[in-house]
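Good day; I would like, with your permission, to put a structural problem before you. What I wish to show you is a protein chain and, alongside it, a tokenised description of its three-dimensional fold. Thank you for your consideration; the sequence and its tokens are set out here:
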Amino acid sequence: HWQKLKEPEGALDTIIMYAHAGSGKRGGTYSDFTLGVSVANDDRFSESFIPIGKAYGGYTNAELRRLNQELKKLVVEKFGPTLLLRPGLVVELEFDSIQANKRTKAGYTLRFPRFRSIRWDLGPDDVDTLQEVERLAQAKSMLTRPSMDTLADKAPIILPNG
């Protein structure tokens, strides 16, 4: 079996807005997260953060244990298996692409988002903005015909899966 690895398209510093209880081997822990970007200085919105994506992986078991300890300090409300959190935990989220999506509050969806790192050193004021997402999406849409050099840089790496 072969496994295809693709370089991430980009990364954003995001805030954990909601934590969702996992199932199966992740039962009993919060392992699925809704992450947001800042709209604090954006006149289009009244809130400080809006969702940009959900992530279910990219962290180690040790990071997940620590994350679950820290989540307890930030719970605002519990809705069944979901926790609404006060802004406090920053995650560097990597993704394969940004797509326009009119059905979301942000107007964009991140394709295949996953944790790159939990940024214990950052706070809510360090989170990337929706304007940054829009800038990244705009820059990507301007690349209509990539050169062969760019294509070679983005070629997937194929590794044996054994």
In short: The longest helix spans residues 130-141. Confidence is low (pLDDT under 50) at residues 144-151. The longest strand covers residues 10-21.
